[in-house]
Write a structure and sequence with these properties.
The protein contains 11 helices and 14 strands. The protein is α/β, with parallel strands linked by helices and 333 residues long. The longest helix has 16 residues, at 281-296. The structure holds threonylcarbamoyladenylate and magnesium ion.
Length: 333
Amino acid sequence: MVSVRTVPVVPASDRAIRRAADILRRGGLVAFPTETVYGLGADALSEEACAQIFAVKRRPRFDPLIVHVLGAQALEALCAPIDDRARRLIAAFWPGPLTLVLEKTSVVPDLVTAGEATVAVRAPSHPVARALLEAAGMPIAAPSANPFGYVSPTCAEHVRAQLGNDIELILDGGPCDVGVESTIVDLSGENAVLLRAGGVEPSQVESVIGPLGTPRAGDAPRAPGQLVSHYAPRTPLTLLEGCAGRAEPGRRVGLLAFGAPDPAIAASYTTVELLSPSADVREAARHLFACLRRLDERGLDAIVAEPVPHTGLGIAILDRLRRASAARGADAS
Ligand code: TXA
Ligand code: MG
C-alpha cells in the first residue's frame, strides 16, 4: 500500500492551535508564525523537546534558543529579578520584535541557553503566536524554522519546503509582517549590548535606555547573527556598494533591487527581485527573505544585491545581506 504523507500545513484556526498546543505539551515540535519570521517551537522547559529542535535544524548546540512568553509576568520564573532598563524596554516594545538577554534561573535547561548563565526572551505580538502560548500554557523555545545557516522563513510554505518532513504541524498564519528577526539586546551586564539588529530599530531602543554597546571583538559568538556567514542562500551573493549596473554577459545573474531599477539595466539580468516598489525599508524587510529564496531557486551563477538605506529596518536588512554575502565558512552549515 502506498502511504500518502499528509501535508502538515494547516490554517491557524482555534482548533489547529489547540492541536499544536497538545503536540507541544507532549514534547513535540510545531512551526508557528510570529510577526518577524516563522519559529520552530518546543516546550522551553523540556530539554528533550528542545533537543529535537537542534536535530531538525542541524543546529550546533553552542547556539542558544530564544524563549517566547506572553509577557513580563512569565519572566518571574525564568529570570532573576529584572532591572529598570528591562522594565522600560518591555513597557516600550513588548509584545513585539525585541529579545532581551537576561540572567536565567535554574528552571531553564542548559541546552536552551547553550550553557550560558543568561536566557534570551521575547513576547511576540503575532496573534497566532500569542494564542499558542496561551493554549500551551508554557514558555516556547523557538529559533527561526529553517535549516541552520539558511534564510529564515516568512511564510508557512517556506517552512514546509525545507522542514515539512520533520515537523508534525505547521500553523499557517500568512506572511510575516516584519520579515526580519527580532532585535536582540543583552542586558546581563552593566552596559546594554546590541547583539543583533532586527525588527525594532536600534535607535528606538537607545531612545529608551541610552547608548547601546556592540559586542567586544574576540568574544565568543553570542548570536548566529554574529557568525560571519549566516542567513545565506546557496547561490553566491555579492552586496553592491551602490545601484546595480548591467549584468556581466554570459552568466546567469539575478538582481536583488531595492527600488525599481532602470529597465535597460534590469533587462541585462536573468531575473530581478524587487524589495520595495516604493523604496521603503519596512516593505523591503517584509519581502527580503522571500525574494532571496526565489532567487536561490532559479539556478543562477550569482546574485547581486543593491544596498538599502542604512536607516530604520534598513540596518537589519544590510546586516543580513552582509552576512549572506560572506563566503560560506565553517561557522554555518
Ligand atoms: O524574531 C526572532 O527572534 C525569531 C522568532 C521565531 O522569534 N527567532 C529567531 O531565533 O530568530 P534564532 O534561533 O534564529 O536566533 C536566536 C538568537 C541567536 O542569535 C542566539 O544566539 C541568540 O538568539 N541567543 C539566544 N540565547 C542567547 C543568550 N543567552 N545569549 C546571547 N544570545 C542568545
Ligand atoms: Mg535563525
